[in-house]
Design a protein that fits this description.
With about 120 residues, this protein is mainly α. It has a domain of about 80 residues. It has four helices and no strands.
């Protein structure tokens, strides 16, 4: 019977080693998951701070005045608003069909510079 007793001790030892190894792997996995969750919490807390600061700024009179001037084109009594039109590009003036967008038939730029100065 000593052989059966030794076999039982070996089987119980192997089972204990397997359970211990499995527990260590689970702890490592959960530690990594906890670290990533803590990083996410930190990122969200930073984002919350930024949003609170933005909300605080948006509640100020300075923000309301800036938005009224920029987006609603409002001014205080006695002020004059100047509206500067956007510049027109060659495509806007001539239309896109009249402008040659390919450089296949044109001389290289370096050659044009040489021809200009010499």
């Amino acid at each position: 019977m000593p052989g059966v007793k030794n076999l039982a001790i070996i089987a119980i030892s192997l089972l204990a080693i397997y359970n211990t190894a499995r527990t260590v792997i689970d702890i490592n996995t959960r530690t990594k998951k906890l670290g990533s969750i803590q990083n996410e919490v930190q990122r969200l807390e930073n984002e919350q701070k930024e949003l609170k600061a933005e909300l605080k700024y948006r509640k100020t009179n300075e923000f309301v005045e800036k938005e009224a001037r920029d987006k609603l084109m409002m001014a205080f009594p006695g002020e004059v608003m100047l509206v500067i039109p956007k510049t027109e590009t060659a495509k806007d003036i001539l239309g896109s069909s009249t402008i040659n967008t390919t450089n296949q038939n044109q001389t290289p730029l370096w050659k044009q510079w040489i021809d200009l100065f010499f």
